[in-house]
């Protein structure tokens, strides 16, 4: 089980839902700041992975200075998380969904993880974002999965971000490749169901899974 933000609900209630449905919490996001105020980044449940959002680049900002601060903050955060047995994840996001987001490309995020050098700092590779920004997903999976730097994968259909059986990506092929490359982590389904709540929402759209 993964979702963006859990902070609006009591952790005891969420933990009870997880236990009652036989689920494990695979990932959630650290607080993003004032989401309604357009902040996208500034870790409660038994969750071993936390996505730390990088944030937006203000107009006219010095990107080199921002990167230096980012690396310094990740050094500190990874040290704090290590004591709790938590892996931190950072993710490149396409600028269509979040204009101005600091990280957009796989090479950028892998360079940051290498520079920080903390064993509990990993990449969250979302194949939806990667396809929109860069494409060439099979080659990138072959390039990056063997490094051990990818701690979590996410999927969605491209371009509408619906279920993965709709759109331009061949997920059957990509899943086979991911297995061949030996990835043993989680794959999160971060998409918007084609059907609205009144037509079954997420549940109605899960027919792609058996296939």
Structure description:
By secondary structure, the protein is an alpha/beta fold. The protein has 7 helices and 7 strands. It has helices at residues 11-20, 63-82, 106-116, 127-133, 137-144, 171-180, 201-204; strands at 2-3, 27-29, 49-51, 87-90, 121-126, 150-155, 187-189. The chain has a 7-stranded parallel sheet with strand order 1-2-3-4-5-6-7. Strand 6 (150-155), helix 6 and strand 7 form a beta-alpha-beta unit. It is globular.
Summarize the structure.
33% of the residues lie in helices and 13% in strands. It has helices spanning 11-20, 63-82, 106-116, 127-133, 137-144, 171-180, 201-204; strands at residues 2-3, 27-29, 49-51, 87-90, 121-126, 150-155, 187-189.
List keywords for this structure.
single chain, 211 residues, alpha/beta, 7-stranded parallel sheet, 7 strands, 33% helix, globular
In terms of topology, how is this protein built?
Elements: E1 2-3, H1 11-20, E2 27-29, E3 49-51, H2 63-82, E4 87-90, H3 106-116, E5 121-126, H4 127-133, H5 137-144, E6 150-155, H6 171-180, E7 187-189, H7 201-204
Parallel strand pairs: 1-2, 2-3, 3-4, 4-5, 5-6, 6-7
Q: Give the strand tally.
A: 7
How do the SSEs run, as a string of H and E?
A: EHEEHEHEHHEHEH
For the biggest sheet, the summary is: 7 strands, parallel
Average pLDDT across residues? 91
Global Rg? 17 Å
Name the overall outline.
globular
Structural class: alpha/beta
Unreliable parts? none
């Amino acid at each position: 089980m993964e979702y963006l933000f859990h902070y609006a609900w009591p952790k005891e209630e969420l933990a009870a839902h997880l236990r009652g449905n036989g689920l494990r919490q695979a990932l959630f996001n650290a607080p993003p700041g004032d989401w309604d105020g357009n902040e996208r980044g500034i870790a409660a449940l038994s969750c071993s992975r936390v996505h730390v959002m990088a944030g937006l680049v203000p107009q006219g900002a010095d990107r080199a200075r921002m990167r230096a601060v980012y690396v310094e903050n990740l050094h500190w955060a990874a040290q704090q998380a290590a004591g709790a047995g938590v892996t931190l994840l950072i993710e490149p996001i396409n600028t269509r969904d979040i204009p101005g987001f600091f990280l957009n490309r796989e090479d950028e995020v892998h360079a940051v993880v290498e520079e920080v050098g903390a064993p509990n700092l990993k990449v969250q590779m979302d194949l939806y974002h990667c396809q929109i920004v860069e494409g060439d997903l099979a080659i990138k999976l072959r390039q990056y999965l063997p490094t051990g730097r990818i701690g979590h994968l996410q999927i969605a259909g491209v371009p509408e971000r619906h279920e993965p059986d709709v759109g331009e990506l061949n997920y059957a092929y990509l899943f086979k490749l991911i297995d061949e490359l030996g990835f043993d982590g989680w794959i999160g389904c971060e998409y918007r169901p084609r059907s609205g709540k009144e037509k079954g929402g997420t549940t109605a759209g899960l027919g792609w899974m058996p296939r």
